[in-house]
């Protein structure tokens, strides 16, 4: 394909910008990953190096020596998985319903939905509602309150509107019911947007910790993020701590290693999951954002 001079210049500029963006994103990730295996003193004094004498697994050993890590990891999987299932199911059903041309009061319903994107009841009323529903100190307090996202519903509705009506009309002529059309035709064509919503929901809930701080009292129910936070606080050197200089230096060294190791552990599931969702992610975002 022959490009004009201006096109070649534009392509070069785009490649340079994309390379810079990739480096801006990649370098911090590599820094954190390598720093989690290096001795803090060696990292500060020598920088990155391949000398095995400067490498250590003390940070990971310290984290996994705490049995609460595994329990927090399982809790986070349950919370993020349950939240994703509820959020995707509600968003797909609501989005498909709102995409139908013959729905009475569709604009009014959308107005009510859109209002909730800008105004909410606040923390205290939400806490009182969760308490009165008997969900305090249960997993449902983490999964249900924020499971319905208006933004997800809008993305799903936009995607469903892009599906040709001829497919549904042909199915109706063949005698298919509305439920069968949705189950056999619409859902198979909606894999991109479903995977996109699932990825957004899982990442959002996986990184969340504030609701757990508010609604959970039993530490056995804590998600991974709160468990790692507790470990970091326990190993953090406070300004008023009493002890000799060597003891404080050792605690500071362990604290630095734990910080980097915690970031790697918390990010690992997302890094593993994203490549499997990438092809659906690209298509779903583009189609769901148009029109």
> What about the largest sheet?
none
What order do the SSEs take from the amino end to the carboxyl end, as H and E?
A: HHHHHHHHHHHHHH
- How many β strands by DSSP? 0
Helical segment count = 14
Instruction: Tell me the helix content.
Output: over 70%
The residue-averaged pLDDT reads 81
CATH superfamily of the largest domain: MetI-like
Question: Which strand-content bin applies to the residues?
Answer: under 5%
CATH class of the largest domain: Mainly Alpha
Cα shape? globular
Calculate the terminal CA-CA distance, rounded to whole Å. 30 Å
Number of domains: 2
Query: How big is the Rg?
Result: 25 Å
- CATH fold label of the largest domain: MetI-like fold
The SS-based structural class is mainly alpha
CATH architecture of the largest domain, by name, is Orthogonal Bundle
Describe the overall structure.
The protein is mainly alpha-helical. The chain has two domains: 5-54; 58-289, MetI-like (MetI-like fold, Orthogonal Bundle), CATH 1.10.3720. It contains 14 helices and no strands. The model has no long low-confidence stretch (mean pLDDT 81).
Structure, briefly:
The protein has 14 helices and no strands. It is mostly helical and about 290 residues long. It folds into two domains: about 5-55; about 60-290, Orthogonal Bundle (MetI-like fold).
